Amino acid sequence: MPLQAPPDAGTLPRPPHQPARGMRPLWLVVLASIWIATVCNVALWRELFRLPGLNGGQAAVISVALVLVITLATTALLSLLAWRWTLKPAITLFLLAAAFGAYFMMAYGVVIDKTMMVNTLQTDVRETRDLLNWRLLATVLVLAVLPLVLLWRQKVRRASAARQLLGNFATLAGTSVLLVLVVFLFFQSIASVMRNYTHVRYLINPLNSFYALGAIAAKPFQRDESMVLPLGEDAKLGASYSAQNKPPLLLLVLGETARSGNFSLNGYNRPTNPLLAKENVVSLRNAWSCGTSTAASVPCMFSHFGREAYDSRPANYEGLLDVLQRAGLAVLWIDNQSGCKGVCDRVPNVNTVQLQVPGLCDSGECFDEVMLRGIDERIAALPPERRAKGVVVVMHQMGGHGPAYYKRSPQAVKKFLPECADNALQSCSKEGLVNAYDNSIVYTDQLLASSIQWLKAQEARSAPALLYLADHGESLGENNLYLHGMPYGIAPDVQKRVPWITWLSPGFEQRSKLSTACLKQQLDTPVSHDNYFHSVLGLMNVQTSVYKSALDIYARCAKP
Fold first, then answer.
1. How far apart, in whole angstroms, are the C-alpha atoms of residue 256 and residue 237?
2. What is the pLDDT, as a whole number, of residue 514?
3. Which CATH superfamily is domain 229-404+461-555 in?
4. C-alpha dihedral (546, 550, 553, 556), degrees to nearest 10
5. In sequence order, what are the residues at sequence separation of 6 or more whose Cβ sits closer than 8 angstroms to the Cβ of residue 370?
6. CA contacts within 13 A on the Cβ side of 84
């Protein structure tokens, strides 16, 4: 048989059509959205079945409705990012946000809103370290890492830019229509729950986090955050300075995470204030905070606005320390926390985080008493012409900051044992958790008593006084809620009721014409952070048009 020439390449038969390999972007988006809406929202489902006004059947119906709502809303958002180079990173972001959110909502019973997000963004390395534990790692591994391994190993079917745009638009339009339909069908049930149990809306994960971030990002459009307007430009020192023999020395101790109800001075049945009980102090039992987190409370309490007006303020203004300094006083801020949240930016300030004092700074952070070390030298470094008029020093505590309460007190003052030594609070016994927290209050008692002793040592050349006020309280497992940061309107009282303690030396009483005996008759009078700005100005006899005597809690006990 004669050999035949090979056929020309152009005449070779074409192979059968090979289908495109990989999964369509739409299916990746839908599968990720279903995973997020169901497994990653276990905190939401747990809370729905706990609500006292719902029976099991109602909770189940609302849960199904919210699964559909969350799935469709997440799909719609991801469809905007379902492009070749952004699809997997976008899903990764959603899964990680959902996993971390699920852990903190399940472990501590918190919700995620704008305040909580600001608190999270301002968390420093020490606070972050206290939150790390194996439960967090396990949760993130199961809810995010394992799905992400599957995601990044999965090939994605490619399409032309025009076809992908059309597909993304169709997905967005379709899910939007379905979302409207689901909300319409279940509107009464969903609206009733969201209206009667407002905290539930802050459990919708991770949409709660993204909404909070959006609200924070929108702030510059509401007011110019880069500008700080002057306040109290007419501030001047009052008549008590005209012929003074001893200048006033006011120590403001800014407490952290202190529950008024855990102070034995306020009636607590455990001896958490044995040292202060020996001093002639006044402890107000009905004081309330401006917020439920440091980020919310500290700027608010040092402002002249008050809680109701602070969030809606038209612009940023200087605060209490600026007015005191403008009046001519020497001002110093000493910080043993994560910063002053902007209120000390324009006055002399120092942070103790870098100090290495043996016995006080041995575990990567310093106990609060370190703020008294070298305080005389720090005050001596302030301008002498200001010191001659008067000095105001602020000490910002680490206090009872959680969840690692056991780190907040040295071994020598741990009065209550056994103590929870775990930052996974849900694994601690109620007794151990309360013991660890109460030990932080005992240490605060020691700090304040030591501060009073230091102030007494200054009486030969000054007229000293002390004012202690905490920024917010704390939940210790009541109703399965831990830590703080709940939206103010739904936060329990233990996160908002704070201790307010005053000590006045005889010299300060004489120059201010205040009576400690009179103050002790006001123990149950309602006061709040709204009073702080004006009360401190009143104590220091600073005259300015922004001072309101009606909000000065000490004015009512000043002799004419």
1. 30
2. 96
3. Alkaline Phosphatase, subunit A (3.40.720.10)
4. 130
5. 336, 352, 355, 357, 360, 361
6. 8
User: What letter does residue 514 receive in the DSSP assignment?
Assistant: B
How does strand 482-483 pair with strand 475-476?
Answer: antiparallel
pLDDT band at 13; cut points 50, 70, 90: low
DSSP 244-281: -SS-EEEEEEEE-S--GGG-GGGT-SS-S-TTGGGS-E
Q: Is 486 in contact with 242 (CB distance < 8 Å)?
A: no
Task: Quick: pLDDT tens for 424-450.
Answer: 898 899 999 999 999 999 999 999 999
Cα 348 to the chain's mean position, in Å? 25
* Cα–Cα distance measured from residue 430 to residue 478, given in angstroms and rounded to the nearest whole number: 10
Give the span between the Cα atoms of 201 and 186, in whole angstroms: 15
Determine the average pLDDT of the residues in 235-250.
95
Using 50, 70 and 90 to split pLDDT, how confident is the model at 1? very low
Distance, CA of 396 to chain centre: 15
Rounded distance, CA 238 to CA 301, Å?
Answer: 23
3-state DSSP assignment of residue 6: coil
Q: Is the pLDDT of residue 212 over 90?
A: yes
- The helix (run of H) or strand (run of E) holding residue 298 is helix 294-301
Helix axes 87-108 and 207-217, enclosed angle (nearest 10): 100
The 8-class DSSP code of residue 110 comes to: -
User: Which residues make up the CATH 3.40.720.10 domain(s) of the chain?
Assistant: 229-404+461-555
Which amino acid belongs to residue 422?
D
The mean pLDDT of the chain is: 93
- The percentage of the chain sitting over the pLDDT mark of 70, rounded to a whole number, equals 96
**Cβ 500 vs Cβ 468: under 8 Å:** yes
Burial of 554 (0-12, 13-18, 19+ CB in 10 A): buried
Amino acid at 72: L
Residues found in the chain: 560
Closest CA to 213 of 297, 116, 139: 116
